[in-house]
Design brief:
- The protein is mainly β.
- Helices cover about 0% and strands about 55% of the residues.
- The chain is built from no helices and twelve strands.
- Strands 1-2-5-6 form a four-stranded antiparallel β-sheet, with no helix packed on it. Strands 7-10-11 form a three-stranded antiparallel β-sheet, with no helix packed on it.
- The model has no long low-confidence stretch (mean pLDDT about 95).
Length: about 80
C-alpha cells in the first residue's frame, strides 16, 4: 500500500473489490474504490498475476511483482502508471 495526495493505492492478488472489477490494483479516495486502468494480468498458465510492491516516484506509481501485462501492454514484472494531477 502507498498513500499519495489523499488517496490510498493497494495492490496484491485480487480481481474484485466491492463488486467492481479491479485486477490486482485499486485506489481508495476516501469514499469508494476505483480501478487503475485494466490493472495487471498474466497470460501464463499456472502463473497468476500478483503485485508485490508499490512506490511513488516523481508523481508516478510504480508496481512490481509477477505479471506480464499492464492493461493490454506487455511488460516484464514492473510497470509505471501515470497518476492524474
Amino acid at each position: 500500500m502507498v498513500f499519495y495526495k489523499n488517496k490510498l493505492y493497494v495492490a496484491g492478488v485480487f480481481t474484485k473489490i466491492g463488486g467492481k472489477i479491479m485486477n490486482n490494483i485499486a485506489r481508495w479516495d476516501g469514499k469508494s474504490w476505483q480501478p487503475l486502468g485494466a490493472g495487471f494480468s498474466s497470460n501464463k498458465k499456472n502463473y497468476p498475476a500478483k503485485v508485490m510492491a508499490l512506490c511513488i516516484y516523481k508523481g508516478d506509481l510504480y508496481a512490481a511483482g509477477r505479471f506480464d501485462h499492464s492493461g493490454n501492454k506487455p511488460v516484464e514484472n514492473i510497470a509505471r502508471l501515470k497518476l492524474s494531477k
